[in-house]
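Let us practice reading a record.
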Amino acid sequence: MDTNTDTSFPDHGPVCRSVAKLLGGVDDKHLAAPTPCPDYTVRELLGHLVGLTLAFRDAGKKELGATTDTAPTDSLPQLDDDWRTVLPGQLDGLAAAWRSPDAWQGFTRAGGVDLPGEVAGIVALNELVVHGWDLARSTGQAYEVDRASLEATLSFLEPAAASAEAGEAPEGLFGPPVAVPADAPLLDRVIGLSGRRPDWRPGE
């Protein structure tokens, strides 16, 4: 049950549940399949999700150390055999950590980068929304994200996309933004800003 009553900050609980719901639909046959992340198969995407949920859980709790100091680009993520039991618990733990107002105050660290708590919390939300979509699309599953999470992610991604379009940055946070109609569904607009094609399918 979500217990966050502070509406000034996003609640990670709904999107964590959306991602957790996908895990039961991931078969071993999917693990070698491609994903919208060019360098990742489903196996490596899941490994990335295991790592980022642990890192952002600890970042929210201000428990800094090995989990928060390692850059995600150091090497391809590895996936342990116990991911089906580990990842749901880490998603719950991340959501719980960021329900504390203290998580959003001061500075913390994730991926070896020091960040204000209020920025790290939104980065975590963005990672979950986008990589949840990656996982759903790669494994042929429906993906529903609550509107509050999508709106917070959109607000986070829009400045990076505007900088890229103005030539002030070479690409967005995940890659060059993909043009999406202004009247497209909110999830498609978020995914386009993240550098993915909303119509991506395996093998394309």
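A brief commentary: The beta strands are 107-110, 113-116.
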